[in-house]
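hi! just following up on the protien thing from before. the input was this:
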Amino acid sequence: MSPTPTTGSGLLLPVQDEDGAPFWTYTARGELRVQACGECGQRRFPPRPCCPHCQSFGVEWHRMSGRGRIWSYVVAHPPLLPAYAEQAPYNAVVVELADEPRIRMVGNLVAAPDASLDSLDPAKLRIGAPVKAVFHEMGEGEDRVTVPRWMLERP
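and the predicted 3d structure came back as:
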């Protein structure tokens, strides 16, 4: 088993697989897309090889608006890994997508796309707050990946 990839500062990078590879290609372009069934059209996340509704292996990728609302959140402290301890307290949010409320994505709510994880005052977190997707490049070389993050629509 290979070690989990990290940035030079020790932050964890997402593990990419064949089914999710297009998701990361689109985020690198600044697009939020989710997998959909090529037969029944049902959208799904995380990506997987087979539709859980009709069992088709047909796949399409639908562009989302990047808008959503905070469905849940936590403020982590004390974190377990040293690179995260330096940024504590920071949040992890679950965002329900406006285009497809059955789909929820996990990420961080930040003050700006390239801001540190602790850039937003935890007192500003509210269930139901409207958010929009922004994109942040992490890692270097072959490990470079663009991850979606979230910002409040009305800070």
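The chain has a mean pLDDT of 93.
Residues 50 and 57 are 5 Å apart (CA to CA).
cheers
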